[in-house]
Design brief:
The structure holds 2 protein chains of 2 kinds.
Chain A (H helix, E strand, L loop, with lengths): L4 H10 L10 H16 L10 E2 L13 E10 L2 E10 L2 E7 L12 H10 L9 E2 L2 E2 L2 H18 L4 E5 L5 H13 L4 E4 L19 E5 L10 H16 L6 E6 L4 H5 L2 E4 L5 H11 L11 H16 L4 E5 L5 H14 L15 E2 L3 H7 L4 E5 L3 H4 L6 H5 L4 E6 L4 H4 L3 E4 L8 E3 L7 E3 L12 H8 L6 H8 L7 H9 L47 E6 L13 H4 L8 E2 L4 E3 L1 H7 L5 E7 L2 E9 L7 E5 L8 H4 L17 E13 L3 E2 L14 E2 L27 E6 L8 H9 L7 H5 L8 E7 L6 E7 L8 H5 L5 E3 L5 E3 L9 H5 L6 E2 L10 H5 L13 E2 L5 H14 L9 H5 L5 E5 L6 H7 L3 E2 L11 E4 L1 E2 L6
Parallel strand pairs in A: 7-8, 7-14, 8-13, 9-10, 9-12, 10-11, 14-15, 15-16, 19-24, 21-23, 27-38, 28-37
Antiparallel strand pairs in A: 2-3, 3-4, 5-6, 5-16, 17-18, 19-25, 20-26, 21-24, 22-23, 22-25, 28-35, 29-30, 31-32, 33-34, 36-37
Helix pairs in contact in A: 3-21, 5-15, 8-9
Chain B lengths: L1 H20 L2 H4 L13 H7 L4 H4 L14 H8 L10 H9 L5 E2 L12 H7 L3 H5 L16 H9 L21 H15 L3 H4 L8
Helix pairs in contact in B: 5-6
The chains are: A alpha/beta, B mainly alpha.
């Protein structure tokens, strides 16, 4: 109004004094705001001055400069190579290491969230003796006495319990301890290990994969390397080079099953017969099983595909199935001429399992136990009797990141350093070695795992010296320096145990036909045969894994792939079973197997086999800190040492009450829409969108820049790496279960999950949905204060300092990607979490709308660097794109026909989401291809 | 009439508000900030002739020019004025490893992302925003760091451009104004500094 000449004339006629003010819209709004401010503040004083505190000595690169360091974290003993992005001397983001074959620049969701693990305020900060704060000096005395006693007894009575150990230096240290004290015993407790180490499948070379209850693409230490390989093959198929066939038979939906061309829902007890049936179809065993038509159809097409792709076909069996079956699978694979994979995993064949520890502790043989970086009091099977027998040990020492359930039972708890603040080394999934270098000095009075073991041996060396000793290296050694730069180190011929690798172990491949001894867990499940009652399938949680991430709010709030649930685990059943037992979502139910029972809420998931119940580990912690305590139920209660992954003969009974769950997606059908589109085979096009009339003005274009994004749904596996990366990059607040239940989660990028097809045979599909950056953006039409505007490069901008929180933009958005700060979600964050914030991104306050910016801070960074250097802009990668292990997400300049994103958008499978809204979105999708071969 | 009166009231209040927004009380222009160590830019810059970049090292390479670390102060003050009482906090900081505390002079809101090195590399002189610090015994804010102040240059960048190797020069009075103007226009054209692009929201807000 103020800009209209006749109105101005009228105002000036009445208030001539205003003529000397140049009144414009912006000014009036600003003045109104200032007026309000004055009205509100009687003192109207200046804001308190901020104090500036420069460093005493500048960090590397100077203040505000980004430095990158190659390092790694570990998951289940397997290294995850990464590049730590540090500013002002502290890490603010973790990226994959593009130079490392096990990462290729990608990460999984756990690695992204490891950053917050470093800044966890609930981490153990000082040694504890009997729960009371103590000093390392006091423990050194205890360690000295212990070492002297062990020297006298050759180590008899001393037990070392670790998690799966992959670190060459840790292996060297343990070997040295055992050489010094031959009678000591070493136990490995790997709660998530199967009966054989899982093979690392060369999925990029495999044109046909038949997975029997195996989930190579699922969350876990091998997800990144498998997803990279699988997507490379899939992309080859898209380009017309070979096939990419995936057959999956499984009792529960997995990420692998979701992307399979042919998925068979099979009960746990049918996996054995299916394996036999496969052998029959391939001609190596007389037929003896009977199959229904679904099974027979699946078996025949799987066998035909295997035979048609001899030399590039493989059968994979879930690692938790009996070793004898793996031998049979190895025989099949040998006949198929499958390429032998590097079967590395952190299996420690020369260690005992935890099952041998409990009797030793009960009998009094164990005089002292050191639990290193493991939490058996929580993760041991219920029937191992760990907690009860552990209490009988005269000296119990626990070293870990947290004062957890095991620490509570121990005399001594020693706080370990997070890997991101440690010197160490790891073995990534490809079997190479990587040096872990600290990204920051330790925050607390902690020591690394190597220093704790060295302390026991009476050695006070620092972790760097210990690691260098393993690699026979020194600071000035060029090999060491290049290892720090590249993140991987070549074995040295002079190195001791550190440089060597044990013989490759069998994982269903011909290399080692003899069934290998189980690592850490007793032989499995012949014991429990399916009979009457339900099957219970027990799996690690996709978000908090075995419980080691329950302190991490980023992961707790990460919606799980098939349920989109946050902050809880559930008893999951198929729709038919729910209907038969008259169960509904959120209803509390009691799941009983033998003497054990758990109570948890029901969630109905299509794709679970009939008469099967799925539960996830990692919840129900009693020492999970502020974040993890009291969340979910403890599924370890049903986990038997004899059958850790499956229980038979269970009963499920609905209870009266309901339990509120927080899901971010309340309906999983497309309800007649075509949000996720499918084509039958590679090369097929989606129907072209008809041009629609529009009232929007044409797009302005400057400097030949037009940002856009293409997301290929054909390779998206719904793994959540992108969501986790977005949270880390863009300072996305965690809002908690109550707020998520109200639909107030703040994720800028969500992954929608849909099921199509019949309920018994659902086709799962994932669709990541960031802001579409519409060319005809409805939100921009809705905003009364111009807080959301369009840039000439095609970005849909959100200007936080203009936003007054009317939420009109969100109401107008057809994609519902805008997020509103209903409360000051960052306000009461502990200072540690604030230190994890990305300083390049505004921390939004209450009452402000926000949404995906296409990582504008990265675009601006590149624009500024190019501008300062006088060169054209180079490539910009968004955080989600950089993390994605399948390269499903590509971002770039669509005005440049040579760019990858322009090529993707030119593909016949490219389509916009909700085209009827005619928003001309800059984010478009590539349709999924149903078949893995051309007809 | 009531309506007109109401509108009049709002306009009057707004005018008062506008006065406040631009008032030095709010923008802090000219207000001397007192410091624990009474650091004099006047002495160090004019009398000693130390270049800005000796202490503000990040100015050519990063977003932050950076306040100098205590270590930088001590490169000289471990040799000269080693016993000066005013420098006691500096020595203490160096000895204890605890940072010095300065009261901020130049400050932008958290939602503004200013990058020093792109300005310096393009030839925006220090004096353009920070004023004649060589005349400041204690430092004060020379320019109102309001959005209007930023936009003044972003709308017509030519007027602020100087040869990049001379950006730390404080006194430009000896130069021919017309020549500077011509240089600025040519530099802006050469670098392709487009006011349309420079005034996009995302240039400063993200």
């Amino acid at each position: 109004m103020i800009d209209q000449p006749d109105f101005r004339a009228k105002v000036l006629e009445r208030f001539p004094a205003l003529a000397r003010f140049d009144l414009r819209r912006r000014d009036v709004l600003k003045c109104l705001a200032a007026t309000m401010a004055i009205a509100g503040l009687d003192g109207c004083e200046r804001r308190a001055d901020e104090t500036a505190m420069p460093f005493v000595v500048n960090p590397d690169g100077g203040p505000g400069v980004e430095r990158h360091y190659a390092s790694a974290v570990e998951l289940d003993g397997v290294g995850q190579p990464l590049i730590g992005v540090c500013r002002d001397g502290r890490p603010v983001k973790l990226e994959g290491n593009p130079g490392h074959p096990a990462s290729g620049g990608a990460t999984d969701a756990f690695t992204q969230a490891a950053l917050l693990g470093l800044y966890d305020p609930d981490r153990s900060q000082t040694p504890l003796r009997g729960g009371q704060a103590a000093t390392w000096g006091e423990f050194e005395g205890v360690a000295f006495e212990l070492a002297r006693a062990l020297d006298g007894s050759a180590g008899a009575g001393f037990h070392l319990l670790t998690g799966p150990v992959g670190s060459p230096t840790l292996l060297r240290q343990i070997a040295e301890l055992r050489a010094r004290w031959p009678a000591m015993r070493w136990h490995v407790h790997a709660p998530l290990a199967g009966s054989v180490p899982p093979p690392i499948l060369p999925l990029d070379k495999l044109e046909c994969v038949v997975a029997l209850d195996a989930d190579p693409l699922g969350p876990g230490p091998l997800q990144t390397i498998h997803a990279r390989g699988w997507s490379a093959r899939r992309r080859g198929y898209q380009a017309g080079q070979g096939d990419a066939l995936l057959f999956v038979a499984e009792p529960i939906p997995t990420l692998t099953g979701a992307v399979a061309g042919e998925r068979l829902t099979a009960r746990h007890g049918r996996i054995g017969p299916l394996l036999a049936g496969l052998e029959t179809e391939l001609g190596s065993r007389p037929s003896g099983e009977t199959f229904d038509t679904h099974e027979l159809g699946w078996l025949q097409s799987a066998a035909a595909a295997l035979l048609a792709h001899k030399g590039s076909a493989v059968v994979a069996l879930g690692a938790h199935h009996p070793p004898a079956w793996h031998t049979r699978v190895a025989a099949i694979n040998a006949r198929l001429g499958a390429p032998a994979p590097p079967a590395y995993s952190a299996a420690n064949p020369d260690a005992e399992g935890i099952d041998n520890l409990a009797p030793a502790m009960r009998s009094g043989e164990a005089r002292s136990v050191l639990v290193l970086d493991s939490n058996p009091a929580y993760t041991a099977p219920f029937d191992s009797g760990f907690a009860a027998s552990f209490r009988k040990v005269p000296l119990r020492i626990h070293a870990g990141l947290h004062a957890d359930e095991t620490a509570e039972l121990s005399h001594w708890h020693l706080p370990l350093a997070h890997l991101l603040e440690s010197w160490s080394d790891v073995r990534p999934a490809d079997g190479s070695a990587a040096i872990v270098q600290p990204l920051v000095r330790p925050f607390y009075d902690v020591r690394t795992r190597h220093e704790v073991l060295a302390l026991l041996a009476g050695d006070n060396s620092g972790a760097r010296a210990i690691v260098q000793k393993s690699w026979n290296a020194s600071d000035v050694d060029p090999r060491w320096q290049s290892a720090l730069l590249s993140g991987s180190i070549k074995p040295s011929p002079l190195a001791g145990e550190g440089g060597e690798r044990g013989p490759p172990r069998s994982g269903g491949f011909a290399a080692d036909p003899s069934p290998s001894a189980p690592a850490g867990l007793p032989p499995l499940p012949q014991g429990e045969r399916a009979g009457a009652g339900l099957d219970v399938i027990i799996r690690p949680d996709p978000s908090v894994h075995d419980g080691q991430f329950s302190h991490n709010p980023w992961l707790q709030e990460l919606p799980k792939p098939f349920t989109k649930l946050t902050w809880d685990n559930t008893i999951q059943v198929a729709p038919e079973l729910a209907a038969r037992l008259k169960l509904h979502n959120e209803q509390l139910a009691e799941l009983t197997v033998g003497q054990q029972k758990v109570v948890g809420p029901i969630w109905i998931v299509p794709g679970i086999a009939p008469e099967t119940v799925l539960i996830h580990l990692g919840y129900g912690r009693s020492a999970g800190g502020r974040v993890g305590n009291g969340v979910g139920f403890d599924a370890y209660a049903l986990r038997s040492a004899l059958s850790p992954w499956h229980r038979a003969g269970a009963t499920l009974r609905g209870l009266g009450g309901d339990y509120e769950l927080a899901s971010t997606q309340t309906h999983t059908t497309m309800a007649g829409h075509d949000f996720v589109r499918f084509v039958q085979q590679a090369g097929e096009a989606v129907p072209a969108e008809p041009p629609r009339a529009t009232m929007y003005p044409p797009q302005r274009k400057t400097h030949g820049l037009a940002w856009g994004m293409a997301i290929d749904l054909d390779v998206c596996i719904g793994c959540n790496a992108c969501v986790s990366a977005c949270v880390a990059e863009n300072n996305i607040p965690t809002v908690g279960k109550e707020e998520v239940r109200k639909g107030r989660e703040m994720h800028w990028l969500r992954i929608d999950g849909y099921e199509t097809g019949e309920p018994e045979k659902p086709q799962h599909a994932f669709q990541p949905v960031p802001c579409m950056h519409c060319e005809n953006a409805p939100c921009e039409m809705g905003c009364p204060v111009n807080a959301t505007v369009h840039s000439p490069d095609g970005l849909n901008l959100q200007v936080y300092n203009r936003c007054i929180g009317t939420r009109t933009c969100s109401a107008f958005c057809p994609y519902k990607v805008r997020r509103f700060n209903w409360a000051d979600y960052n306000g009461d964050d502990p200072p540690e979490w604030r230190a994890a914030h990305n300083p390049e991104v505004t921390v939004r306050e209450r009452g402000v709308m926000e949404k995906c910016t296409y990582c504008i801070q990265r675009i601006e960074r590149e624009k500024i660097e190019a501008d300062a250097a006088g060169r054209p802009m180079g490539e910009v990668k968004t955080a989600c794109q950089q993390a994605c292990p399948t390269n499903a997400i590509v971002f770039g300049n669509i005005a440049d026909p040579g760019s990858e994103v322009a090529r993707r958008k030119a593909d016949a499978r490219d389509y916009p989401l909700i085209p009827e809204a005619n928003t001309r979105p800059r984010t478009t999708y590539g349709a999924r291809i149903r078949r893995g071969r051309k007809a | 009439m009531i309506l007109v009166g109401f509108v009049g009231l709002i306009v009057a209040a707004s005018a008062a508000g506008a006065g406040y927004v631009r008032n030095p009380l709010r923008t802090q222009v000219g207000f001397v900030q007192h410091q624990t160590v009474p650091f004099s830019h006047k002495h160090h810059v004019r009398d000693d002739g130390i270049d800005c970049r000796y202490c503000h090292t990040g100015v050519e390479t990063g977003a932050d020019a950076g306040l100098p670390p205590t270590h930088t102060c001590m490169t000289c003050h471990s040799q000269i004025w080693t016993d000066a009482p005013v420098l006691a906090p500096v020595r203490e900081s160096y000895a204890t490893g605890k940072p010095l505390k300065w009261n901020r002079v130049a400050q932008l809101p958290d939602y503004v992302f200013f990058d020093h090195h792109v300005h310096v590399d393009n030839g925006v002189a220090c004096v353009e925003c920070h004023g004649r610090v060589d005349k400041m015994p204690l430092t004060w804010r020379a320019k109102p760091f309001t959005m209007q102040f930023c936009l003044d240059c972003h709308q017509s960048p030519a007027k602020a451009l100087r040869p990049p190797d001379m950006v730390t020069r404080m006194d430009w009075s000896g130069f021919d104004k017309a020549a500077l103007k011509t240089y600025g226009a040519q530099a802006a054209a050469h670098k392709g500094l487009d006011p349309k692009r420079l005034t996009n929201c995302e240039t400063c807000h993200r």
